[in-house]
Design brief:
The chain is built from ten helices and no strands. The protein is mainly alpha-helical. The radius of gyration is 19 Å and the shape is globular.
């Protein structure tokens, strides 16, 4: 019996130590998943906690096919989608123009040149993703990080396939503009030194 199988068996038997081991093993990775879907760290912590409660409640449903980590990831993503449906979906479905979410024409046209265009850390990108409007963030995560197609995303979020495509396109553009704005600000600081 593998270490994962022992841990799963312990969780099925309600053993706290096994539950703690499972949490310790996967919490950091799953927190990263939750961060991508949330607006801030606190919301990500709530999603993580809710997701792990579901993992422990439904661990008997894991059939051993596919990776256990993948099964947990799916629960975290579904938890984020459910949270999205419960709290924010109606706020973003009607967003049509990028200008409505605060990007000006100036920012839209700016594009840094040279090496500084690639000087953004993964942590910074995560923070910028959290600043994206909810619809952009959800579709971007599902499409780019989870690998879903627009038809699947539309079904999950209860929107049309065209809305999913539009949100992805606008989300990518929005994220690029946030990155460009950040780089411009950093570049100006460097020029002053």
């Amino acid at each position: 019996m593998s270490a994962d199988e022992k841990m799963i068996r312990g969780c099925l038997d309600g053993k706290r130590r096994a539950q703690s081991q499972l949490y310790q093993r996967f919490a950091q990775t799953m927190f990263g998943v939750c961060l991508r879907y949330s607006r801030n760290r606190e919301e990500a912590e709530d999603l993580l906690q809710e997701g792990f409660i579901k993992v422990f409640q439904h661990i008997a449903n894991y059939k051993g096919t596919g990776s256990f980590e993948g099964w947990i990831r799916r629960i975290m993503v579904n938890t984020a989608i459910n949270h999205f449906h419960a709290t924010v979906k109606q706020q973003w479905v009607h967003v049509e123009d990028i200008e409505k979410v605060g990007i000006s024409q100036e920012e839209e046209q700016y594009s840094p040149q040279g090496e500084e265009a690639y000087a953004v850390s993964p942590e910074t990108v995560m923070q910028l993703i959290q600043k994206m409007p909810d619809g952009y963030r959800m579709v971007l995560n599902l499409y780019v990080f989870e690998g879903y197609q627009h038809k699947e995303i539309a079904n999950m979020l209860g929107v049309s396939e065209n809305t999913s495509k539009s949100q992805l396109s606008k989300g990518r553009k929005y994220l690029k503009q946030l990155i460009n704005k950040l780089l411009d600000k950093e570049y100006k600081i460097l020029e002053q030194l």
